[in-house]
Structures are given as C-alpha cells and as structure tokens.
Design brief:
- By secondary structure, the chain is an alpha+beta fold.
- Helices cover 28% and strands 22% of the residues.
- It has 16 helices and 32 strands.
- The strands form 7 sheets. Strands 1, 4, 5, 6, 7, 8, 9, 10 and 11 form a 9-stranded mixed sheet that branches. A 6-stranded mixed sheet has the order 15-13-14-26-30-27, sandwiched between helices. A 5-stranded mixed sheet has the order 2-3-19-24-18.
- Strand 16 and strand 17 form a beta hairpin.
C-alpha cells in the first residue's frame, strides 16, 4: 500500500504487537466513509439522523468514563524530566513504552487495524506536516476524514522517504471469539494513556476513543508535538483561531486569537459583524501553525480540515454559521436524540420536551440534569461553513496582523486592552486566566491560569515556551503582530452581562484594526492601552454609558490582589522563567504599587 519502507515496517511492527484480525489502509474516499458509518450503525455504535433535516449525519454516545480530555493521564515522555516542565505529567520514555507495550500486546484482537495517512494543513503546503495514525476505531477513521486530509494523495506526497509523525492508537478493548461488542468500547480510566514522545516526534494513545485523546492529529500532533517541532525549527504552533476581517474600504486584517476551550473561540472564528460594511471570514477555529514568510511577516495556516466544536450553547442566536455548517455530513457525540430523530443540546434555539439523553436514557427538562453532556461535540467539515475564507487552504497561509488573548472572567478584567509592546504582549498571553470549562475532566479549581490557552497543550517546559515567544518577536521585529487582550464575559455583581457579545464583538475588533492603522488614540493605564471614552464604535448599540464605563474600568486594587497568585504561578518555572518575563512581572508590581 506504500512505497515508504519505513512506514511499511512500522505498520508491520504494530500489526505483530496488536494482533488485529484485519489491516485496512484508508484511502480517504467517500465510499470508505460511508462503509465505516454503515458498519457502526449495524453494530449499534452510531444512529443515523433524520435524512431530511440532517443529511448524512450520525449520533454517537460515548461511555460515561470517556467524555473529555483526561489531563491526569496525558504524558510528555522526554528524555530529561526538566524539559517537560512543571505543567506537564512526565514519565521516563523507556518506562512508559514498556508499560504501554504490555497494554498494546494483543489489544486489537477481534478488530481491524486501520492505517490512516493524513496531512495537517493543505497537502503539500510548506507549513503542513504529514502524520500516519494507526487505530482500531472506525469512529476515529470517520472523524479523521473530516478533521484532516486523509488518503492516497498524502501517501503520494510522502513518497518513499518523506518524514511523517507516527501516531499509534487503540481503544484497548480486544474481542475474544464470540464475545459481543459494546456500543462504545474503551478501557477504564486508570488504563488510559495519552502519551507523547517529543524527542522522537511520536504519539501513543491507549484506552480512550473520544476527541483529542483518539483523534491524534488534533491536540496531540497539532499542539503538543508540533509545539516542540516549532521551537526546534523556528516557527509557532498555537491554540488559536484565525479570522479575516475586512473593512468597508476593502482593507484586510488577519487575526489569530487564543482562548481556553469553551470560551467562545468558535463563535469568534465565525463572527457575523454587527457593524455595517465590515465582513468576517473564518480561516480556522482552533489551531494556527505560523511561519515567517519571505516578506518577514508571520503567515498562518489552519492545520485542520474540520471543526470539532462544543455543542451546548451553539445556536442560531450565538453562532448561525456553525449551525449551518453542521446541518449535513457531520458527526455528533453525546447529544440528545429527539423523538423525530434529530439532535439537540442545551442552549439550542428550540426547546426539547422529550428525547434520549447522552447516556441512552429517556430525558425531559424535568430530569434534573443536562440531556447533552456539557462537552458534547460536533465534527463538521470546515468547507461547509458559509463564512469560510476563500483563502483558508492557501498553502502559503495568511499574514497575521493581530494576536488576541482572552478568557472567561466575570470581574476584574476589562473588555479590551492593547499591550504596550511585544514583551508586554507576551506577558498578557502568559498571565491569561479563565473560569474553568467542561473540556477537561479532572479540573476542580474555579479559576485557572492558562498561559496562551496552551497549558494542557504545550509539549515542553513552559518557561522555554515563553522564551520562544520572546525570540519570535525578536525575529519579527517591527513586523510582529500587535497584541490585545479581551474579556467578553464581564458581569455586574447581580450576574447581568455587561457586554452583548457575539456579533457586537466586531466593535472591539474594529478598535484593534484602527489602533494598528493609527486611526484612534488610546489611554495608557497600569495594565495596558485602553480605548478612550469615545474610542469604541457603539453606534446603533443600545448599551448604557455606565455599563461601558464599567467594562473599561481598571480597578488597580483588584489587579494588585491578583499579583501574588500570578507570581506564585510563574515561580513554578524556576530558573527557566525568562528574565524578560521576570521584568514584566516586576513592571506590573511597580505599576500597582504606584
């Protein structure tokens, strides 16, 4: 199936270890996808949805133990423990491989081994990378069809000696002869391993069939391994959406923005501006790979081919582009199945009076718990998005003008501010804090420090990661993107939202664009450059002046109260905390003391 001797040998090695009944090389065809779905419908794993409402769409329900990232079972196994850093779980790579080889022994018995050649990024792009995933899950095959570019074209580009990232995955549920399968096979939590070997650009995953634990092109390759490769090779792999904003005069701005999971990233990526004459187009909703181009600017591609979005809260009110995208050729996981064979989740436009919940039980609004899991997902082809940018698959990428960081904070953090310079921008990204989301299974704190929204995804010491950001800024010089920080989620003390969000967020993005064009002034404060009293375009928006004042208010005492916790967080990085970051912390403390 391949002329690449190294790939053929690796597949044979895994086949010998895992002992599947069959081996199938994926060609990425529609026929293959349909056959996989038919197989899973027949086994009871998938439910085909109403064809007239959701053509070619399917619903899956996972095991209750397999619903999200399991950060406590996610490992960075580099040779030197200190290179993993304090934010990662480290295990000696030899020890981990010995443990996992024991688990992999015979783990695909009774199942098919699928070889999935895939490209992260447009096939042949100078910014793209090729991976090959081995998996025993047809659910993974179909999701990878949507989320990456799968098939024979990838093998053609790989050729006989090209580089690829090996990604080995098993659900960890061998079948004995005559043993009946279950709808969602997986291993117990204590046997789940999501393991990365950055010294070898290698990924091994065992025991989970869900999301980024199993779709190894996503967080595992595109962030944890790619972040290490990017530092090594002088580029950037970031947990960022990419969008193009065009003003009424036709001037284009490209924005890359980092937010923790379930904090509105997909909504922003598919923004519909409320300001007349402004247009937004989506390049990517989750991950950005960026290299310095011949023009000295940072050019970004979306390495993915689909959206793996959080379903609850997605509606025609919050994100009509996403709703139109997922209406066909999509996969839904852990949503409600309605009585008329459609999907539903909390926050959708119409209520659901009765259905089958994500655990397969009868459900009504009186059931006392959500019908859809809070981390239920849709997997949908990006090309179906009505707001997709015509250049979203440009192999050269799009030039980035603006970086945006943010999180979900009900208080303290204002609507928007601009970094004073690149180093201050790195500080803003590094000090990002958010209220926790449902995307991580084992997080219990109310507030979580999440530098660059990369805390679960940086594949090496985060102190070195911060240093890489400083060094990229040095390389870019005056062509570096300008840096901003936003918070759409500010509330009053009685819990009322201060900012309407959604399409109105374009007003904040407009201010950023006008800042980089030198069209609007800003006020310097202790935490950055803020809009003037009339800096934001609020024309046509019914918002009380007092709310705007509160949205832009800087409470120095509140910021001062947060600094000890921030310093304690950065202290974890020890002597690998860059001196330039230390200087930014001291600058913030001096401002607050003043």
């Amino acid at each position: 199936m391949t002329e690449h001797a190294g790939l053929a040998a690796w597949v044979k090695e895994v086949e010998t270890l895992c002992t599947p009944d069959k081996v199938h090389w994926c060609d990425g065809s529609t026929k293959e996808y349909d056959e996989m779905m038919q197989l899973m419908v027949a086994s009871g794993m998938a439910t085909k949805l109403d064809e007239s409402s959701f053509p070619n769409c399917y619903l899956f329900r996972s095991d209750p133990s397999d619903v999200a990232r399991v950060e406590g079972r996610t490992y960075i196994a580099c040779r030197e423990e200190e290179n993993a850093g304090p934010t990662n779980n480290w295990i000696d790579p030899d020890q981990l491989k010995e443990t996992m080889r024991g688990l992999y022994q015979g783990c695909m018995k009774g199942r098919t081994l699928y070889v999935i050649p895939f490209s992260m990024g447009p096939i042949g792009s100078p910014i793209a990378k090729i991976g090959v995933q081995i998996s025993d899950s047809p659910y993974v095959v179909t999701n990878m069809h949507i989320m990456t570019r799968v098939g024979t074209r990838v093998l053609e580009v790989l050729g006989s000696a090209g580089e690829f990232i090996p990604c080995l995955h098993s659900i960890g549920a061998p079948l004995e002869p005559g043993q009946e399968d279950v709808p969602w096979p997986c291993a117990p939590v204590e046997k789940k391993y999501i393991s990365h070997f950055p010294d070898e650009n290698l990924i091994w995953s065992y025991g989970s069939g869900y999301g980024g634990n199993a779709l190894l092109g996503k967080k595992c390759l595109a962030l944890r391994i790619a972040s290490v490769m990017a530092r090594r090779e002088g580029w950037m792999a970031e947990h960022m959406l990419i969008l193009r904003l065009t003003n009424p005069e036709g001037r284009r701005y490209h924005i890359a923005a980092a937010f923790p999971s379930a904090c509105g990233k997909t909504n922003l990526a598919m923004l519909q501006p409320s300001i007349p004459g402004w247009k937004c187009e989506c390049v990517g909703d989750d991950i950005a790979w960026m290299k310095i181009g011949g023009d000295g600017r940072l050019h970004a591609i979306n390495p993915e081919a689909g959206f793996f979005g959080v379903a609850p809260g997605t509606s025609y009110d919050s994100n009509p582009m996403a709703m139109d995208t997922l209406k066909s050729n999509s996969i839904f996981t852990n949503c409600v199945l309605t009585d008329d064979n459609k999907v539903w989740w909390e926050g959708m436009d119409e209520p659901c009076e009765h259905g089958i919940d994500w655990k397969g039980r009868e459900w009504t609004p009186a059931s006392g718990e959500p019908g859809a899991h809070p981390n239920s997902r849709f997997t949908a082809p990006a090309k179906q998005c009505p707001a997709i940018c015509p250049d979203w698959e440009d192999p050269a990428g799009v030039p980035i003008d603006i970086f945006v960081f943010g999180g979900r904070r009900a208080s303290v953090v204002p609507l928007v501010r601009q970094a004073l310079d690149w180093d201050h921008g790195v500080y803003l990204g590094a000090s990002a804090t958010s209220e926790v989301t449902a995307a991580a299974l084992d997080i219990k704190a109310k507030l979580r420090r999440d530098p660059f929204a990369m805390l679960p995804f940086c594949g090496y010491h985060m102190g070195d990661y911060l240093q890489h950001w400083f060094e990229m800024g040095d390389k870019l010089g005056d062509k570096a993107p300008k840096v901003f920080y936003v918070n759409w989620f500010r509330k009053t003390e009685d819990g009322r939202w201060l900012w309407p969000g959604f399409g109105e967020n374009a007003r904040v993005l407009k201010w950023m664009c006008e800042r980089i064009d030198g069209k609007v002034d800003a006020v310097e404060t202790s935490i950055g450059l803020m809009p003037t009293a009339d800096g934001l375009d609020l024309e046509g928006l019914d918002i009380p002046a007092a709310d705007v004042e509160e949205l832009l208010r800087v409470d120095d005492n509140a910021w001062k109260a947060e600094l000890p916790d921030l310093r304690e967080f950065f202290a974890k990085f020890g002597d690998r905390l860059p001196p330039r970051m230390q200087a930014q912390i001291e600058r913030a403390e001096q401002f607050q003391r003043a």
